[in-house]
């Protein structure tokens, strides 16, 4: 591991708004499980979690757009996360935190019904059939999300992948979940709503996709 990454991990360790459990710590049940609002944020505001947050751009942007909620970005890449963690600290965003762990382990980090909203922004679509199990919106992951979301809680998917958008829509239709918004081009269909959360920010990857002329899709739904 390079010195740069080690330095960033050390920075994260020193930040009270960042949690970096070891594999054993997370798999044995994180002490914060079921107590994120009370013990970490010290606020009963709704908990919004971004899965695969990368540099934390969207987590930060959502916190600025709707500051009356708690925001937690999750990613396994600590070196990337350091950027968002530093920005939250430097900007005094007390309602923003970060958790470094694998998405597959989130049920060890949260209690059933603990999360109010989930965001997934620009995940790898894993188009090849043999990669289906790695898609962040496959049926297995969706079952986990449903358990962790409170009844009526929301899940948002923002992606450049028409394939992934359609794949999720198909699952939701078969399973009978409630689709609240489905946009195949947010910049066309939501242009009259500039304050919409789909426009909270343009991430690094979104800017790349837009330059390539790709459409940005958005989907918001709740489980039945």
Task: Summarize this structure as a short list of keywords or feature phrases.
single chain; eight-stranded mixed β-sheet; Rossmann fold; alpha/beta; 224 residues; globular
Distance between the amino and carboxyl termini: 45 Å
Radius of gyration, in angstroms, nearest whole number: 17 Å
Portion in strands = 15-25%
Query: What does the overall shape look like?
Result: globular
CATH class: Alpha Beta
- Helix count, DSSP H or I runs of 4 or more residues: 9
> Number of folding domains?
1
CATH superfamily, please? Vaccinia Virus protein VP39
Tally of extended strands? 8
- Average pLDDT: 95
**Order of strands side by side in the largest beta sheet?**
1-4-3-2-5-6-8-7
Helix content: 25-40%
- Can you write the helix and strand succession as a string? HEHHEHEHEEHEHEHHE
Q: Any idea of the CATH topology?
A: Rossmann fold
Largest sheet: 8 strands, mixed
Category from helices, strands and their pairing:
alpha/beta
Unreliable runs = none
């Amino acid at each position: 591991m390079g010195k740069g990454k080690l330095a960033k991990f050390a920075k994260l360790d020193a930040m009270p708004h960042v949690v970096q459990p070891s594999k054993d710590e997370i798999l044995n049940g994180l002490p914060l499980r079921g107590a994120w609002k009370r013990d970490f944020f010290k606020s009963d505001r709704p908990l919004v979690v971004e899965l695969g947050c990368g540099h934390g751009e969207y987590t930060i942007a959502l916190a600025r757009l709707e500051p009356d909620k708690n925001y937690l970005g999750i990613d396994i890449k600590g070196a990337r996360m350091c950027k968002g963690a530093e920005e939250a600290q430097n900007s005094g965003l007390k309602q923003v935190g970060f958790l470094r762990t694998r998405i597959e382990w989130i049920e060890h980090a949260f209690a059933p019904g603990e999360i109010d909203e989930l965001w997934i922004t620009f995940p790898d679509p894993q188009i090849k059939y043999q990669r289906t199990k790695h898609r962040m919106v496959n049926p297995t992951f969706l079952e986990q999300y449903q358990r962790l979301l409170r009844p009526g809680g929301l899940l948002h998917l923002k992606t450049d992948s028409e394939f992934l958008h359609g794949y999720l829509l198909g699952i939701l239709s078969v399973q009978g979940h409630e689709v609240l918004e489905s946009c195949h081009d947010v910049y066309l269909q939501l242009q009259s709503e500039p304050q919409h959360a789909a426009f909270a920010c343009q991430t690094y990857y979104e800017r790349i996709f837009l330059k390539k002329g790709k459409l940005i899709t958005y989907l918001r739904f709740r489980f039945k």
